[in-house]
Amino acid sequence: MPRKTIIHRKEEQIVWLTLNRPLAGNTINLELANNLSDACREINQDEGVRAVIVTGAGQTFCTSADLDELSSSTLDKLSRMNQASLASRAVASINCPVIAAINGDALGAGLELALSCDIRIASENARFGFPETSYGLIPGGGGTQRLPRIVGKGKATEMILIAEPIDAAEAYRVGLVTKVVPGERLAEEAEEIAKRLVSRAPIAVRYAKEAVNKGVDMTLEQGLRLEADLSFLLQTTEDRAEGIRAFLEKRTAHFKGE
What we know:
Elements: E1 6-11, E2 14-19, H1 30-45, E3 51-56, H2 67-71, H3 75-80, H4 83-92, E4 98-102, E5 106-107, H5 109-115, E6 119-123, E7 127-129, H6 143-151, H7 153-162, E8 166-167, H8 168-173, E9 179-181, H9 186-198, H10 202-215, H11 220-234, H12 238-248
Parallel strand pairs: 2-3, 3-4, 4-6, 5-7, 6-9
Antiparallel strand pairs: 1-2, 7-8
Helix pairs in contact: 1-4, 4-5, 5-6, 6-7, 10-11
């Protein structure tokens, strides 16, 4: 089904999700949040998808939630409709690896969306920040929880309280993004990472993602048990047998996700 605010493009086993409100800085309104949620649900139902790339149309990634829409809403309506939270939860729910190709500013809800992805790469002109405290709010789509888990409490607290953006070089230095490239190379770099992910055993990749994401909220002992349980389950898969055969035969493995 066509969606005005999201471009959903599948190329073999890779899906591109492009936020498509360029004239509004790709701000997240309720329509975009719902379209994104629907797209993510479809991805999880498609066993042929092994990697997802999220990016923005135009010169920005995503600059915030739609403040015009928020300001016209009643408080009761707001309590039922947090666009930033809906969008970031949808992306975080995707089972396969998700790459954020951050082609410009990722601010407020846009940064929360990027934080919901597994791997973040950025163009040289990108900026990152949470401006919410400068207009009487706090990040409401997971920013206060996900950012400290990625860059540490000290840097996260500074970014959230002071509400001033950092550039791509600083984002790389603190571990917010794993790579910074010229803007014209961003899509190519994101696709290269996605292709490498596609070449890996999909069940193992999915379980590894689960172990990392759930393990950070567990004690070490609980996390180790989770890792052991998932590792045991993988012993029964055909992909595991194929991986061993390929290694012994010195050839590239051909994984089927079985």
